[in-house]
Design goal:
glycoprotein; alpha/beta; 9-stranded parallel sheet; 14 strands
């Protein structure tokens, strides 16, 4: 929660004040560190280091808390048997006492890696093999659809903004302007076959302005900034440029005759006021992340009532169905609404999947199995970002159909997992 909140809030506010950025990012992380400080250590760790009394006290605390929540505070905590994990140090000591420290360290590393490999392969042994395969499918499909669309949504919104901006372009043809002073911003315009004579461009800005087949004669340019603006097939005759950013990259097939350039501006002159869509991408991500809050609350309240599998499969299927509404997303507000709906539905699937994964594995394979599923999750996220990102501005059909199919199929597979609602952890 701290990571998601700090990332989204920091991204949304980083262009206003670095102090706000630092505070918003650091505050939830500090809260998380404080919470971890008061969280008790794992009983398994205490057993591994020989602190049996501490492990027993933590187990008793967990037992008493659970019994009070169930309305049975009088129930006494008893332990019949504790199985202590074998220490890797015991295996190291089995080496010859004459072995040097380097060989002992090498043996320790080899023993650790061998133990990890054996534990990983045990995730594919009976009786958890079938569960591992199904969990891998669900993790992969949910991550592929979720992260793929998370990247696709902001870029599509930005593409819609660009299309809407281009539809409002103003076109000027065969204009003749003489002895005029431009000291204001020209934005989203196309000038074709224009003639500018003895004109002055002073302390002004070109924003998405294109001059085509135009002639500038005896014109003076002073403190001019051009953003997304170009001069194509134009002619400059005896023009003077001072403190401008007009260079060869913006003069396309343009002829320069007896013109001079002095003190040209260097570096990027674009600001976020000029390109509001850059800020908008971060703000959309923030809104999408904020939309998971209701989903988290609903999943926390209903997890034990409707069951993990019903929430997992239902959320994934509903998320896949909600993707079809993207066909009707023709404006920024509609796409943002779809993004919030999609994230709100998907987060319930994530929460229930975390619980199901933990409860399906026994203790000696739980960490390895969960780590394997998370590795598949990251791989699917990378593939989703690459595939969905390459389809922005090309077609809406493929991303919508792909995400819907993947999520629905993953949800149906998730419904085939064993129900762990009332099971005791192994």
């Amino acid at each position: 929660v701290a990571y998601r909140w700090s990332f989204s809030m920091g991204s949304a506010y980083q262009f206003h004040s670095w102090r706000v950025f630092v505070v918003v990012c650091a505050l939830p992380c500090v809260c998380a560190v404080v919470a971890l400080t008061f969280m008790p250590e794992s009983p398994r760790f205490y057993l591994e280091v020989g602190k049996h009394d501490e492990a027993w006290m933590i187990l008793k605390q967990i037992h008493d808390t659970n019994m009070r929540a169930r309305g049975q505070p009088e129930k006494v905590f008893t332990v019949n048997r504790i199985k202590i994990p074998k220490q890797i140090d015991e295996l190291v000591e089995m080496q010859s006492e004459s072995a040097n420290p380097a060989s002992k360290a090498l043996f320790r590393v080899k023993a650790e890696l061998h133990g990890i490999w054996l534990t990983f392969m045990r995730c594919f042994n009976y009786p958890v093999k079938d569960n591992t395969v199904k969990l891998a499918v669900v993790w992969f499909t949910l991550s592929f659809g979720f992260y793929g669309l998370s990247v696709w949504f902001p870029d599509v919104i930005k593409h819609l903004q660009a299309d809407e901006y281009a539809s409002r372009v103003k076109t000027h043809n065969n204009e003749h302007i003489e002895d005029f002073t431009f000291n204001f911003t020209l934005e989203n315009q196309i000038h074709t076959n224009g003639m500018f004579i003895n004109d002055r461009f002073i302390s002004m800005k070109f924003k998405s302005v294109t001059f085509i087949d135009s002639t500038f004669r005896n014109c003076y340019f002073d403190d001019v900034t051009s953003v997304g603006s170009y001069f194509k097939n134009c002619t400059f005759i005896e023009a003077f440029f001072y403190n401008t950013d007009i260079d060869d990259t913006k003069l396309i097939n343009t002829e320069i005759i007896n013109s001079t350039f002095h003190h040209n501006k260097t570096g990027c002159q674009m600001t976020f006021d000029d390109d509001y869509s850059a800020y908008w991408v971060y703000f959309v991500n923030f809104l999408g992340t904020l939309a998971v809050l209701p989903g988290n609350i609903v999943s926390a309240l209903l997890m034990d009532k409707i069951g993990r599998l019903t929430m997992l499969g239902g959320s994934m299927v509903l998320s896949g169905i909600s993707c079809f509404f993207l066909w009707f997303g023709t404006s920024e507000s509609m796409m943002i609404g779809m993004l919030c709906l999609y994230n709100g539905l998907s987060i319930s699937a994530w929460n229930s999947l975390d619980v199901v994964t933990v409860e399906l594995y026994p203790t000696d394979r739980r960490g390895t199995g969960f780590g394997f599923c998370n590795a598949l999750c990251k791989l699917a996220a990378v593939l989703g970002n690459m595939i969905f990102g390459s389809l922005v501005g090309i077609t809406k059909a493929i991303p919508i159909l792909l995400a819907s199919t993947v999520l629905v199929c993953g949800g149906l597979v998730g419904l085939r997992l064993p129900d762990t609602r009332s099971n005791v952890l192994m």
